Amino acid sequence: MVGAGAGALAGCGDDEPSTEEATADVCDARENLDDTLTELGRLDPTDRSELADAREEISNDVEELGDAGRVLAESQWDSVEEAWNNLRNTVDDLDQDTTFAEAREQLSSAGEDLTNAWDEFVSNVDC
User: Contact 120/76 with Cβ under 8 angstroms?
Assistant: First the structure.
């Protein structure tokens, strides 16, 4: 009986990072994501390959920071994820019929939303 109880308790461990670990994760990733978001604004919106690379890089950053973001400021992290989902959908919806001007406007708006959400989130993290 004791062994079963200990095993059940071990399965209930907390996988979230501590506040200190979460802060370190966000601070370490801050410059990289800032650079990626800045670079996004410089990309040719009709270059599908560059957009796919940027999309993947941002996706990896947001995914890696998910647990840390929720530990530090869940509601603000939710805004980052919502803005990321909007940007991802914008990139995915661009097709051969999208003009350069349309693509630039759509990406600019979605990228700005993500940048603003990210900036608001990290403004509350003491790096």
Answer: yes
What is the DSSP annotation of 95-107? -TTS-HHHHHHHH
CA distance 4 to 40: 52
**Which tens digit of pLDDT belongs to each residue from 51-92?**
888 888 888 888 888 888 888 888 889 999 999 999 999 988
Q: Exposed, middle or buried by CB within 10 Å (0-12, 13-18, 19+), for 111?
A: buried
Q: Per-residue confidence at 16, pLDDT binned at 50, 70, 90?
A: confident
Q: Is the pLDDT of residue 117 over 90?
A: yes
- 73 Cβ contact list (under 8 Å, min separation 6): 121, 124, 125
Domain layout of the chain by residue ranges:
19-122
CATH topology of domain 19-122: Four Helix Bundle (Hemerythrin (Met), subunit A) (1.20.120)
CA 72/CA 78 separation, integer angstroms: 11
Q: Could you give the 3-state DSSP secondary structure of residue 31?
A: helix
